[in-house]
Amino acid sequence: MVLALMAPALWNGFPLIFPDTGGYLDRPLFGTLGLGRSALYGLFLYAGAPFAFWPNAIAQSVLTVWLIVLTLRANGLSGRPWLALGIVAMLTVGTGLPWFAGQLMPDILFPASVLALYLLTFRAEQLARREAIALAAVIAFAIPSHMAAAGMCVAVIAALWLLARFKPLELPKPRLWCAAGSVAAGIALCPISNLAITGNFAFTPGGSSFLFGRLIKDGIVARYLGEHCPDASLRLCDFKATLPEDADGWLWDGGSPFRKLGAWTGFRSEERAITRATLERYPLMHASTAVTAAVTSVLYLPDRDRRR
Question: What CA–CA distance (Å, rounded) separates 16 from 299?
Fold first, then answer.
C-alpha cells in the first residue's frame, strides 16, 4: 500500500515538489518566519535532506496507510488485508491522494487530521491508548505545519459540538475532549515551535494577507477603494488603477502593490483595517463571494492547482 501511494514519486525519480516547498525549507535554514510557511514543517523537510527527502515522502505515505487501516479496523473491518489494499489501490488510481502523499508539502496533513479527529471523536473505544496518543500527535503536528488546519479543526470541533445538541438529528454522541485537547495543543505548538526554530514567539504570519488576496480577487477591495479614494490614510489608493486581478498576482508578483507597500510586515495594519471595514459595509458580498469560491474550488481547480 505504501508503494502504491509512492508510485508517482518513484516514477518521477524524486519526491514531488511545488514552488512553495522551498519556502518551507528556508525557515530552519535562515531562522526566519515566512508568509504562510511553517518553520516546523520546514524542519521536518530539513531532516530528510541528506537522503534526498525520500524519508519525508515515505513517512507521509506510511501515515496515510496507517490512518486508512486504523479507520477500517475501528469500523469493524479488521483482518481484511485485501480490502485495505483494494481501497488504497482505488484511491491511488481514482484520486490525487498519491500525488499529495509523495509531495513535499503539508497538504496531506489536512485529510490526515480529519481522519484523526473522526477516530478520536467517534471511535475512541476501539483504539488502544498508544493509538489515541499517536492520533493526537498527528493533529498537533498538522496545525503548526499549516495554519489553515487550525481553522479547519476548530470549525470541525465547533460543528460537532453544536450538532450533538440538535436532538432531531440523533447523531452518535461525540467524545470531543481528547480531540479538542489535541487541537489546543497544536495551536499552542505554533508559536512554541517558531520560537525554538526561528527565535520568534509568534504564529506563522500571513493569514490576513491570504484573506486579503481573496478580497482582491473577488472585487471587494476594488469596490471599497472606488468608494473611498482619494484618502490620505489609505496608501493603497495610489495603486487603485493597478490592482492585480487575482490573489497570486497580489501576493507573489515582485512588483505588486503588496510588495511595494511592505508585504505582510509593512502593510499589515492597513490590510486588516480595510478587511474590517469591508466586513462592516459589504457583509452580503463577503458571504456570497465566499460561498461561490468554496463551490468553485470543489467543482473546478484553477491552473495553478491542477499543476500540483
Answer: 24
Question: pTM of the full predicted structure?
Answer: 0.84
> From the first residue on, what is the mean pLDDT of each consecutive set of 10 residues in the chain (308 residues)?
96 95 94 91 97 97 97 91 94 95 96 96 93 96 94 92 80 87 96 95 87 90 91 89 87 88 87 92 90 75 44
Helix, strand, coil percentages, rounded to 5, for the chain:
75, 0, 25
The number of residues in the chain equals: 308
Map residue 151 onto helix, strand or coil. helix
- DSSP for residue 173: P
Same domain, yes or no, for 161 and 23? yes
Helix (H) or strand (E) holding 155: helix 147-164
Q: What is the pLDDT of residue 51?
A: 97
DSSP 300: -
Same domain (yes/no): 23, 97: yes
Instruction: Looking at the structure, tell me whether residues 187 and 103 fall in a common domain.
Output: yes
Burial class from Cβ neighbours inside 10 Å (0-12, 13-18, 19+) for residue 117 reads buried
Rounded to an integer, what is the distance from CA 219 to the centroid of its chain?
24
On whether both 40 and 134 belong to a single domain, the answer is yes
Q: How many helices (H) and strands (E) does the chain have?
A: 18, 0
- The Cα 217–Cα 268 span in angstroms is 18
Residue with cell 471587494: 220
Distance between CA atoms of residues 43 and 51, nearest Å:
14
